[in-house]
Amino acid sequence: MRRKRVLPLAALMLCTPALAGTAPAVAAPQTAPTAPAAAPAGPLRILLTNDDGYNAPGIRKAFEQLTAAGHDVTIVAPLTNQSGTGTKMMSALAIAVKHPEPKVWAVDGTPGDSVAFGLAEVFAGKAPDLVVSGTNFGPNVAGLATHSGTVGGAVAALESGVPAIALSTGGLSAPDPVTTVNAMGPTLDFAVKLIDRLQVRARSGPLLPKGVGLNVNHPVVGADGKGTAAGVAATFQDPQNFLEPDFADAGDGTWKVTVKVALKPAARGGDIEAVAAGRIAVSPMNSDWNTGPADHAVTSALIAGLRP
Prior knowledge:
- The chain is α/β, with parallel strands linked by helices.
- Helix content is 29%, strand content 23%.
- It is globular, with a radius of gyration of 20 Å.
- It starts with a strand and ends in a 5-residue tail after the last helix.
- Mean pLDDT is 85; it is low at 1-35.
């Protein structure tokens, strides 16, 4: 049975039960879901989201392979393609939500909206053990990660204290749809192994350190995309943004926009270097945009002596 629900923005923000036909005049606050202190030794409860849409090949393959690995997987993902929406969320007064099939929720909003709805309603009272976002069509390395809806979905989970992994499939050239979809199989094979490793290492602790997620970029290997990656690298987000907009004045008050790929030399140890070499890039990320102690020291020096 296909069901459609409209979720008021306040319900997402306050985690109040507003999915019934008529909301109460004063909604009783609901306890926000709390991330589990320790990862279970057995199958995980996984919230699966993405930015390509709930019916995209990447999320469907992820559902199949994570379920086949024994995990309890629920899709809570955008109704439509939301690529490039980044961390955008809660920008509408109401969000329509469909429940087209068991274990699948389609949210007419961003990946962040989807995760917020999933935590507040689908997993109400008990957060999932892990949020997996992807696998995305195309890479999310360097500056692309900053604007990625796939990464944005993972960030929304981290903000709520839930461990999260963003998965992307693609090399640095324009993606070929067929080979990229083929490469999603190896991407998810690796994701299953990675989650197994996290569970083994967690023992009686959390899957990942508090506030830390993983941004995983799997290259397309082989002419058919089914090849094996050259290895796995612990990386960081390369600081460059290699997509450059080119604006052309159409003469009528509008500008035509094209995007050029302008790769600069890859930072040593960064995600671009790894993916270009055919390796899987695994970069840690957090949700609060904080920099390190050295940058704090620089800022302190810059404002020393300043007064309001």
